[in-house]
């Protein structure tokens, strides 16, 4: 069975979704850069090792990244899962975990990398918004797309309503992507393209819920 390590900075609802999905892998550890991250409590409650590597204790990004990598490598993970990990990781870190570092971002990348994605989608007048799971490359919120989920944007949406609609899809898309990886069906090819065996790719990798699913 494959080992995964999950990195997070806060709430940890994507961690909860992975726990609920009963993935065929071992969550060897949950690591946070914030000691008060709720996700750490969730990990402990499930008997999963929870560790903190605080960025405040390190003089530079490189030193923080090195301490984080040392903590991760203790668990020898097959996959490192960024689940709301809100620190930018340096190029050396990203290269160290090339092909086994995954992220979820709350937009349909390449639209809206960075913060406040839901507000920006509303301001831009988007009719469609969503989330993206991707392999991580050195560019922020960028890299080969594994799965996306698209949701409608309603004329009267608040930022919160739209965020909740996207989050519900994150909780489906991210466990699916991790499941594919730990089942050995998903990989990043040397050509930088995503390989997915045994699914009608790319159809399986696009989730489109019923337009009014959250309004019934
Ligand atoms: C999620 O919406 C995730 O997509 C986002 O942080 C939230 C974490 O929620 N990630 C990013 O913005 C990464 N750039 P969670 O802690 O409840 O899983």
């Amino acid at each position: 069975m494959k080992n995964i390590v999950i990195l997070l900075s806060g709430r940890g609802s994507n961690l909860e979704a992975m726990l609920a999905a009963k993935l065929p892998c071992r969550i060897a550890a949950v690591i946070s850069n914030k000691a008060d991250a709720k996700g750490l409590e969730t990990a402990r409650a499930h008997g999963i090792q929870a560790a903190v590597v605080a960025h405040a204790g390190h003089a530079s990004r490189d030193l923080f990244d090195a301490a984080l990598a040392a903590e991760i490598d203790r668990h020898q993970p097959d996959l490192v899962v960024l689940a709301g990990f809100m620190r930018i990781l340096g190029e050396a870190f990203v290269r160290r975990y090339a092909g086994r570092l995954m992220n979820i971002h709350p937009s349909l990348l390449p639209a809206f990398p960075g913060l406040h994605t839901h507000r920006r989608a509303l301001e831009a007048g988007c009719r469609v918004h969503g989330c993206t799971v991707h392999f991580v490359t050195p560019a922020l919120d960028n890299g080969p797309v594994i799965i996306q989920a698209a949701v409608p944007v309603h004329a009267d949406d608040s930022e919160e309503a739209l965020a909740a609609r996207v989050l519900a899809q994150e909780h489906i898309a991210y466990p699916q992507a991790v499941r594919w990886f730990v089942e050995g069906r998903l990989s990043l090819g040397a050509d930088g393209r995503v390989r997915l065996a045994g699914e009608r790719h790319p159809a399986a990798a696009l989730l489109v819920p019923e337009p009014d699913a959250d309004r019934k």
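Residues 3-205 form a domain with the Rossmann fold fold (CATH 3.40.50.170). Residues 8, 10-14, 39, 83-84, 104-106, 131, 141, 167, 170 surround glycinamide ribonucleotide (CB under 6 Å).
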